[in-house]
Amino acid sequence: MLEVYCDSSYNEGEDSYIGCVVLRDGMQLHQSTTKVPGHPQNNLECELSALNFAISLVRTFSAGDTEIVVYNDSTEAVKAFQGRVKQVEKEFSGSRLSFEYIPREKMNQAAADSLSKKFPVFFSSTSTSEVESFSRREDVLLDIARNGSNVFYLEKVPEMSTNKKTCYRLIVRTMEKILSDDMIYPVKKGGPGTQIKAAEQIRKDFSNPEVLSFLKSKGVRLENSYFLLTDETWGLRGTDSQAYSILPSSIPHRVICDEVDRSAQNLFRRAERFR
């Protein structure tokens, strides 16, 4: 599958730019920052230009792909191109083309957004993990309810966040109590996305013996634990059932979420029934 993520940044009275990321079967092929042609008058014109440029990248990189998906975070711009999909698809014989809306905080869309602002993007080499819906997994809820399994998740700290940085608090808890909530991660905005950078900082800490000793003293158990994707970390999830975890892949753990109510309260409320 060929995927193109595109975004734009409208700068009134100045040059505006398009950011694009191209992937085939999950592997990056291309990233670029390109000036929006002409003199756009608003953000929508820029987003339409971004989608037009994305089509030009499809022409460049398509190689008999059976499925081609172009992503953008403007619902209005995407809707306009969805109305043209049959016409555009004729250029790519044998391929199914679609235009899809995607939230800006998603991994590759966040990269396209950063590129449109002329930020350099460095893609994480960290592998992804499969995401499991705990609402459909009684074994997960039973494990959390009866075995004291640790659940890790992040919360934003509004009083410490500014327009230049976002602060996250790492929460580790069991069914019974919170084990740790005093590790704060301030992350500078811009670049490949604050959630991704926060996850990388935490993974680095989990390789530090002093941090591991500190967590152990609080009764934290990393092995066979769970990382809960919440609204605050939904950007770590990809476009399929994969996500980046805050825990290193060397630590046995599972990534869980609920598609509707992503709160930690929902998880522990559901687990309560299995005690």
From TrEMBL:
InterPro entries: RNaseH-like_sf (IPR012337), RNaseH_sf (IPR036397)
Domain of life of the source: Archaea
GO MF, one example: nucleic acid binding
Protein name per its UniProtKB record: Uncharacterized protein
Organism: Methanosarcina acetivorans
